[in-house]
Amino acid sequence: MQYISTRGQAPAVDFKTAILTGLAPDGGLYLPADWPRFTAAELSALRGASYTDVAFEVIRRFAGDSIAPEQLRTLLAEAYDDFGHPAVAPLVQTGPRQWVLELFHGPTLAFKDFAMQAIAPLMAHFLAQEGREMTIVGATSGDTGGAALRAFAGRAGIRVLFLFPRGGVSPFQQEQMLELCSETTHVAAVEGNFDDCQRIVKALFADEAFREAVSLSAVNSINWGRIVAQSVYYITTCLALGLPETGVNFVVPSGNFGDIYAGYVARRMGAPIAGLTIATNENDILARVHATGRYAPTALTPTITPAMDIQVASNFERLLFDLLERDPAALCQLMAGLDRQGGFTLPEAALARFRAGFGAEAVGQQACRDRIAATHSATRYVADPHTAVALEAAARTPAGRAPQVVLSTAHPVKFNETVTEVLGFCPGPGQAPFAPRAAGARPEEIANDIEAVKARVRALL
Ligand SMILES: *Cc1c(COP(=O)(O)O)cnc(C)c1O
């Protein structure tokens, strides 16, 4: 299996290199040269298989010769072993033909665990094979940091530092990240917003001498390994719903377009997916490009769904590549427009393809709160705000006879302030109501300054 860059200027690489490198050297994103496909018979044969078995069947098709099958099976069994539910990604019915896919039973209670738990052992395995070490630096708005700290802690030769905006993550998320710090895994609060954190990380990667000196790597949502691990639960869901002839409609709370793009990958592999609806908050660039064809970031609005407060949806470039019929020159032209004119307009044929495969809905904060309340009063189900954005988008886009599945990307306790404000209570990770702890340890602080962060990273070695 070969991976090519969306920008067309980097040599094709294998799975191992795509995962260890993250971003392609030409600034593009890696994706497979051809889509591996399940035949209908192969899919049917997976009915009743465990989550890990389906993950193995999906990921081995992308991994090619990079890892021995038995080794991959062992790593994946370990990856999903400490999820708090035997189904790993269980479905809960919330209405006629409507389900919520709970992706928050992993160790840090958000769907980021699905990808991190799988790519951490894979990366560690590949590094050990090559006798290399690695320093992972990233920016987080809350969930990615926790999942990465948890998945990479204690892995020989891998050091981790995540930056988060001071005061910009929920108290639960901050507490969780501080608890997950270890000798090799660290977080620091930056005096600034998420964009400042991301700008610093980008500057570190742009400095080639520094990058080489500390063996810098990234596990942000453009890493191909994360996408492929996330495509698994779309397939287990189709299997659990009996591979219906109508296909399944998925509604996905979206930010960086990684999660819903994984649904697109599952569809390319042959999973019966009828529709993929992008649910956004007020930061609605994806809904706007769907409605108008114009992709143009605007100022960021902070909301009660911070994981979706994103203006440039990095993984959209991967879909764009296919919408442009895999023409890297056409893609580079649009990306140049984004850099120079602050946006681009999709060609008509590409927009038509986008609309044929995807729907999109933008949901405001009041509608999100109302949906948390309405869902609870109708079904006693407690949704986190991100999930509620997708529940509201689902209510606006009836799926006809096809089953409709809303992805629940976080446990409500991670955003318990908003949930408590709406419902008067919030369930904890067990059955008991959540009782907030007294403010605990304070995070390490770091200046909003590239050189200060570089010095901090060097000190990790
Ligand atoms: C990361 C995240 C999202 C957005 O996922 P993308 O892959 O960036 O589209 C949505 N909800 C929660 C809770 C998240 O942590």
TrEMBL record:
A Gene Ontology molecular function term of the record = threonine synthase activity
- Give the matching Pfam families: PALP, THR4_C, Thr_synth_N
Q: Which residues form a coiled coil?
A: none
* Entry keywords, A to Z: Amino-acid biosynthesis, Lyase, Pyridoxal phosphate, Threonine biosynthesis
Q: Which cofactor does it need?
A: pyridoxal 5'-phosphate
- What positions does the domain Threonine synthase N-terminal occupy? 2-80
Pathway(s): Amino-acid biosynthesis; L-threonine biosynthesis; L-threonine from L-aspartate: step 5/5
Q: What EC number(s) would the UniProt record show?
A: 4.2.3.1
Q: Which reaction(s) are listed as its catalytic activity?
A: O-phospho-L-homoserine + H2O = L-threonine + phosphate
Enzyme class, first EC level, given as a word: lyase
What InterPro entries is this protein classified in? Answer: Ser/Thr_deHydtase_PyrdxlP-BS, Thr_synth_N, Thr_synth_N_sf, Thr_synthase-like, Threonine_Synthase, TrpB-like_PALP, TrpB-like_PALP_sf
Tryptophan synthase beta chain-like PALP domain sequence ranges: 99-326
Asked if the Swiss-Prot or TrEMBL record annotates the protein with the keyword Nucleotide-binding, the reply is no
Q: Which NCBIfam families match?
A: thrC
**What family is reported?**
Belongs to the threonine synthase family.
Stated name of the protein = Threonine synthase
Q: Which organism is it from?
A: Pseudodonghicola flavimaris
